[in-house]
Amino acid sequence: MTTTTTARRRGARWGAVGALLAASLVLSACSSQPPSPQPDPASSGPVLSVDQNSTVLTSINAVLDKATHDLNPDLLTSRLEGPALTVRKSQVSVAKIRNSADLVTVLPSEYQQIILPTANTWPRTSFAITVTTDKLQPQRLLALVQSSPRAPYKLWGWVQLRPGVTMPAFADPKLGSELLAADDKSLLVSPKDVVAQYADLLTTGDQSAFVGSFEPAADDPFRALIKSTRETQTAALTGPNVGGTYTFTVTPTPNTPIQAVRTADGGAMVMASLDAVEAMSAVAGAVLAPSTKTAQALLQGQNPTNKLTNGFSDMVALYVPPAGSDQKVKLLGYSHVQTSAKIG
């Protein structure tokens, strides 16, 4: 991409950007005609303009900056909700305990692409993709949700995009993109099912019954991270002199909506929240000390024992091909943040 904008700049160039994006992704032929990425018939176009979306992002960024600067997690509720609120409140709370915000995720405030919805009902979701900054901050995909007609748009979630990932193309923001239900049947796998399958894949690895529906593990940095962690910790805890156990379990976050938007090829980009639990134990008398600054802050000086449980609030973005495609589901990006720790 050669065109960028900040949350404060006008978006007159987005039409050209959208046209370029629509031609940027060449997908293999499907056995059936994919759904056309047309606007919702009940809507004449996107329900939010690029300029309005820029104003929303500016307001959200101001809240993020102030909460981080003041180390005050209570400020976040005005413009964050869902998994974004869970993660950011935890990060700012940890920063307050440590008196340092160096572990708070940086969300760049310049945007490479805006994806606007055509939905004329609520809740409704828009998306933004940040640029790579001069400080080498990675690109992030943000989801913004408006829960009711007069409610402000709030930051619902974010993921860090995979390095070098080719994003799917979307409809021009002047036309808007269709939002999809969790049980949409026009995809290779429905949004709800693909999230449950990916959680199973993270939990059971190559033993998962769904491994064949996803891209190879070697191409998925989140699966590679979990696999490496599981192998390292299992080897350390189950040796003859330790006699411990290690489990890592991932499940979709209960009662949390899934965000899905149509891509130009008839597939979808799906964003979802996952809960991950890492449970470790060793023989009586052993000590399992927290290994990260975040875990140490969350435990707030509790004396370690031979049992330790870490909780993570994760977010993922997946590309799901249209029904009839011979492509695989692939990871676009993820966020993996520890938000709890328990001893004993």
The total tally of domains equals 1
Structural class: alpha+beta
List low-confidence stretches.
1-44
Roughly what is the average pLDDT, rounded to an integer? Answer: 88
Distance between the termini: 50 Å
Q: What is the overall shape? A: globular
Portion of residues within helices: 10-25%
H/E series, N to C?
EHHHEEEEHHEEEHEE
Number of strands: 10
Gyration radius, rounded: 21 Å
Number of helices: 6
Q: What is the beta-strand fraction?
A: 15-25%
What does the largest sheet look like? 10 strands, antiparallel
Q: Can you describe this structure?
A:
It is a single chain. The chain is of the alpha+beta class and 344 residues long. It has one domain. Helix content is 25%, strand content 24%. It has six helices and ten strands. Strands 1, 2, 3, 4, 5, 6, 7, 8, 9 and 10 form a ten-stranded antiparallel sheet that branches. Strand 7 and strand 8 form a beta hairpin. The longest helix is centred in the N-terminal third of the chain and has 21 residues. The chain is globular and about 65 Å long. The chain starts with a strand and ends with a strand. The N terminus is likely disordered.
Search tags:
alpha+beta; 6 helices; disordered N terminus; ten-stranded antiparallel β-sheet; 344 residues
Note the topology.
Layout: E1 5-6, H1 14-22, H2 50-70, H3 82-98, E2 110-115, E3 124-130, E4 140-146, E5 154-161, H4 191-204, H5 221-237, E6 245-252, E7 259-262, E8 268-281, H6 293-299, E9 307-320, E10 330-343
Antiparallel strand pairs: 1-2, 2-3, 3-4, 4-5, 5-10, 6-8, 7-8, 8-9, 9-10
